[in-house]
Amino acid sequence: MISRFIVEVRFSMVSKADEVLRGIERRRGWRWFPIIGPEKGKILADVIRRHKPKRVLEVGTLVGYSAVVMGKELASDAEIFTIEIDEDVAKIARENIAKAEIGVRVEVLVGDALKVIPSLDKEFDMVFLDASKDEYLDYLKSVEDKLHKGTVIVADNAGASAWMMRDYLDYVRNSGKYESRLVRVGGDGMEISIKL
C-alpha cells in the first residue's frame, strides 16, 4: 500500500516540460535531432539555477529542447528570446514550448541570427550558443554590446567542435573580457564564460 502511494506521487510529479523533453529524446531513434540531451541539459539547468538570469538569448532553437530545459528553471518573470533560421523547424519549436507549459515568456524569432541580434533592443543576463560553430565568435560580437558584467555565455560543442570554434574559444579565454572554462561531457563539452 505504501509503495503504491509513492509510485503514484512520483508519477504525478512529472511535469509537462519533462514529458515534452522525454518525447523529443525518444524521437532521436527515428530522426536525428542535434539536441543538447539530458547530460548537457543538467549543466545548462545548473547554470540557470546558479546565475538566475531574467533575460536569456538563445542562438539555435531547433525543436525547442534547450529552451524548455532553460525555461523550466527560470523564474516566472523571466523571458527567453530564441533564434531559429528555419521557419518550419521554428514552428515545431513553438509547438513544443507551448506544450511544455514552462510558465515563462518565450519568443521564437525566425531568421539569420547575425541579422536578428542587432535588431534586439535588450540587455541579456545569459546567452546560449548552439548553432553554426564557425559563427560563434560572430554571434558573440554581435550581442556583446547587450551584455553586462556577470552575463554568462554558454557555448555548446566546445569539445567535439573545438577546432571549428577555435577563434571563439581563443577570444573568450584570452581577450581579458571573460572568465571562461570548459565543462567536459563525454567526448564533448560546453564552454561557460562570464563577462568581466
Entry keywords:
seven-stranded mixed β-sheet; 196 residues; alpha/beta; Rossmann fold
Question: In words, what does this structure look like?
Answer:
It is a single chain. The chain is α/β, with parallel strands linked by helices and 196 residues long. It has a single domain (35-195), classed as Vaccinia Virus protein VP39 (Rossmann fold, 3-Layer(aba) Sandwich), CATH 3.40.50. Helix content is 41%, strand content 25%. The chain has helices spanning 2-12, 16-27, 37-51, 65-71, 87-100, 113-116, 136-143, 166-174; strands at residues 55-59, 79-84, 105-110, 124-129, 147-156, 178-185, 188-195. The chain has a 7-stranded mixed β-sheet, with helices on both faces. Helix 2 runs antiparallel to helix 5.
